[in-house]
Amino acid sequence: MLPIDLDVTRSVRAYMASCMNGPEFSLERVHGGLCDAVWYSPKDRRALRALCDQHPQEFTRWLYERERDGRYTGLIMVWPAGYSTPIHDHAGLWGIEMVLQGTLGVEDYELTTDERGEAQPRFVGTTLLEEGQSCAFRGTAGHAHRCTNLSARRAAVTLHVYGGLLETYCNFDPALGGRYVAAPTIARIDGSLGATRVRSA
Asked: CATH code for 7-199?
């Protein structure tokens, strides 16, 4: 665990506790209130800039929350300049992604079944997320996306909340003839930040 205690992760923990313990969960309500609930301080910006500098060429994923009941997990991701993920799903989990530093392009895909019975991503559209902006997805079986740090010079930092334990998912790797092959992938965690702990409801 890195000794980085962030205001932003503390504020997200408190906000998510109120949302998850409410009478009825609503992804729209959670997403709608997240931006107002988050406090991303100058101290946080300095701390995460130092984290970017430690791994300037690597895409890294840092756990800041894992609820004991498995209802959600929280991650900070650091994106090197120009980095793009493969097209990937989220194993059926809902998610919220917020940009803390930089600019992210999010390409959305619909997964359709081809004549072989294999899932194939079909491009739907792109969302541009600047600092402080976020997007949400339901994580249905037909959803996938690809994210790209749009800066060729600077790292980006994003905050993620997932509706469960995202331990494995599928990348969709390009193959011959414009096809894609689903590749089961382990959701790597590079480390933990701050006061990360298993929490009960």
From this structure: 2.60.120.10
